[in-house]
């Protein structure tokens, strides 16, 4: 039976970096589910569909096919057959993904895709509703968080390292807005489930968080 580890938490908590490192040390697949929402947002943007128009989104996603591909353990996202992995890392797409992820039709479309990977491979899967909805029977569940200020500082640095202009105050505002939307939506809101282990990464570096998680996982496989 494949072993599954769910990591949920707000934007900028370090989920993807940590999930990737954890997956590497365990030899598991790393599944970044946010990339699927971003892939759909990318397809909608290409078609010129406004993210806020739920009816139009529901209709148009029927013609958008997103899939995950793994090459040497690295995840790629395809949108209608085209690799869009690098193109989905913009704040416009992140914002769009956050808006459309509120819609039941969008979440439903991506559910089996995520479950199928976990059915076939031992994995570390990160997202917002992995422990609560996608993999309620995951072997281990973590809720990874950090203060909004720490998360905004990390995000600002990330954008700047990619050569994009970013201003801390506006990133902080965006982080708070996204938290509010992710936590208050009616369908699959972001929340810490009862059986998830809470880890606050505010004062910890990547290695320290990964070591903490590994300590919980080793011996329970
Ligand atoms: O994690 P990432 O920033 O790439 O995710 C983009 C957006 O997709 C998030 O803000 C969130 O609203 C949504 N998302 C979600 N459920 C997931 C993963 C991402 O709602 N499992």
Structure notes:
The chain has 221 residues and is of the alpha/beta class. It folds into 2 domains: 1-28 and 122-217, Rossmann fold, CATH 3.40.50; 33-121, Rossmann fold, CATH 3.40.50.300. The protein has 9 helices and 8 strands. The strands form 2 sheets. The protein has a 5-stranded parallel beta sheet with strand order 2-6-1-7-8, with helices on both faces. Strands 3-4-5 form a 3-stranded antiparallel beta sheet, covered by helices on one side. Helix 2 crosses helix 4. The mean pLDDT is 93. It binds cytidine-5'-monophosphate (C5P). Cytidine-5'-monophosphate (C5P) is lined by residues 11, 33-34, 37-38, 94, 97-98, 101, 127-129, 178, 182. Cytidine-5'-monophosphate is lined by residues 11, 33-34, 37-38, 94, 97-98, 101, 127-129, 178, 182. GO terms for molecular function: ATP binding; CMP kinase activity; dCMP kinase activity. Residues 5-216 form the Cytidylate kinase domain.
